[in-house]
Amino acid sequence: MSINWKKTILVVCDIAIAAYLLLAVTAFNKPDVKATQCSEVKIDIKENLVNGFLTTTEIKNLLSHDNIYPLSQPMENISPRRIEEALQKSPFIEKAECYKTQSGHVCIDVKQRIPVVRVMAGNGESYYVDTYGNMMPETRYVTDLVIATGAISHKYAQGTLTRVANHILQNQFWKNQIVQINILSDGSMEMVPRIGDHIIYLGVPNHIDKKLERLRKFYLYGLNKAGWNKYHYISVEFDNQIICKKNNR
């Protein structure tokens, strides 16, 4: 009986390749003695230099409270999903992602909620609202944010107030100038500036961009010449006009 050497060689090659792949996969998956425990936790907080409240220490404390801080823990016992779920329960965290590396590191990426206004409502409630209108509890940290006072319901804070606060923060001039927003009982809005002895009356908080641009021009071409303390009340409620009341002091 003749032997088909060509076929035999192909079979031997297939067996050799299969054996090599098996050994390679086994070697790749074999735990590294140095990486059997978590040797380092890398925490990256996005937008950490803006107005957020979170620090790496607080992330560590959150995980330690749930007994899942991974440092020095066996890598096989560390659940990235569980870490993500624990972090996303925090009202200060918008999104959390966690993954493990073969070198024994656990990496945690956190996107925090950025507050845009601090609410100190007339009914005694005090909280923050983020860029998307989500409510955030009071914190011990001091922030240089606009303070909103007066007749503020949760619905108003998460809608109209958030929209106005975002508009202020996105404009460097108004971000530096406005320190307080006050909501009157009829829903109309006042603002308190950092510079100038006056109250700004916006009326119904619509067309905010046009009203503030009109006021900015009045600041530039009016108050710069007349004096910043000449008026105690400036209204931009109505289109194409500005109503001022003189300061009698």
UniProtKB/TrEMBL annotation:
GO process terms (BP): cell division
Superkingdom to which the source organism belongs: Bacteria
Transmembrane intervals: 9-28
Key words, A-Z: Cell cycle, Cell division, Membrane, Transmembrane, Transmembrane helix
Protein name listed in UniProt: Cell division protein FtsQ
Source organism per UniProt: Prevotella aff. ruminicola Tc2-24
